Amino acid sequence: MASSVTPAATYTSIHSDFETTRFILPDLVSDCHYPLRLNPDCYPVSRASEQWLLDGARLAEPKATAFMGLHAGELAAACYPDADAFHLRVCSDFLNWLFNMDDWLDEFDVDSTLGMRECCMSAFRDPINFQTEKHGGEMCKSYFSRFIQTGGPGCTERFIHTMDLFFIAATKEADDRATGRAIDLESYIAIRRDTSGCKPCFALIEYTALIDLPDKVMSHPVIMAMEEASNDLVTWSNDIFSYNKEQSRHDTNNMISVLMREQGLNLQDAVDYVGRLCKGTIQRFEDNRNILPSWGEELDRQVAIYIDGLQNWIVGSLHWSFDSTRYFGKNGHTIKQDRIVKLLPKRPL
Fold first, then answer.
1. What separation in angstroms does the CA of 299 have from each of 206, 213, 285, 295, 303?
2. Whether the predicted model's global pTM rises above the 0.85 cut
3. Rounded to whole angstroms, how far apart are CA atoms 311 and 199?
4. 154 Cβ contact partners less than 8 Å away, ≥ 6 residues apart
5. How many C-beta atoms lie closer than 10 Å to residue 7's C-beta?
6. Which of 87, 136, 294, 298 could form a disulfide with 83 if both were Cys (CB 3.0 to 4.6 A apart)?
7. Distance between CA atoms of residues 303 and 328, nearest Å
8. Phi-psi region of 210 (alpha: psi -120 to 50; beta: other; left: phi over 0)
């Protein structure tokens, strides 16, 4: 049960003219029955974190206005509902930084991506003494110097290691963009699990709960399978939600685009296919929850906190995607209800 199987497309496409103007989202919110909770410190922490990012990234218009609709602090509050204000602020700052970094990396070539990786990894290794003039590195120093005040050694190393995986995968993406290389579905799924940034976010579950799970727990196949299922739900649903924005700017680095190209599916069929995969991730998560081993009373208590955190990421990310303006502009709440997405016109090349 612990291992996951890379899905193979066996769905036959039925073409329709409907897809030329719009598509219908799968009802992912209804498929997820986990309770949505919001940290009581959400709004003051979110507003302070937004100002931190604006100051640190030196965002100019129109990027500054677009950033204010991101609401990454609200995502942090839904994913870490039990964190105190100090730890929630670190998580909020990290998520604001991560989304901004993701946007920067989309425009970087391989050398620029490698330079940012070197800068940020140095900041993680020594956030107090490392010096840099790169805005991304300065912000790393800011939030990670606060992280290490309470983060346990295992949790800290997991965060640093998975951030390195993020930058390595981003470098691969930059190389694919430069060469025009189109990757297959299996390769896309593998690299997307790192470019999603979910893995360091999962380390923050331990950080906010002041726990530091031992390697024998974190390397267990069932724990790893639950992490992967949570990552896949967050990532694949994000590919659905971000598709419209990405297709308008001719960005094909999306599971829907990969399926359409590789399997010959039309847009709605590809969206529905990814929707079924998302539903399967929740079942995969629950199947593995049912076979969790025991490590003794105290470790089992900590593992339960961690699993609850993975669950919060599943439900929190789904609801936040409609509250943020990042994917649906100001129409998120309407689209959450009717699930109809009108295709944006493609930008001139």
1. 12, 8, 20, 6, 6
2. yes
3. 14
4. 206, 212, 213, 214, 215, 218
5. 17
6. 87
7. 35
8. left
Q: Encoding tokens for residue 312?
A: 């919060």
The amino acid at residue 22 is: R
Task: State the first-to-last Cα distance of the chain, in angstroms, to the nearest integer.
Answer: 46
- What is the DSSP track for 14-28? ---GGGGTEEE---H
Torsion of CA 123, 129, 133, 138, to 10 degrees: 50
Neighbours of 335 (CB within 10 A): 19
Tens-digit pLDDT string for the chain (349 aa): 554 444 544 444 444 445 579 999 999 999 999 999 999 999 999 999 999 999 999 999 999 999 999 999 999 999 999 999 999 999 999 999 999 999 999 999 999 999 999 999 999 999 999 999 999 999 999 999 999 999 999 999 999 999 999 999 999 999 999 999 989 999 999 999 999 999 999 999 999 999 999 999 999 999 999 999 999 999 999 999 999 999 999 988 999 999 999 999 999 999 999 999 999 999 999 999 999 999 999 999 999 999 999 999 999 999 999 999 999 999 999 999 999 999 999 988 7
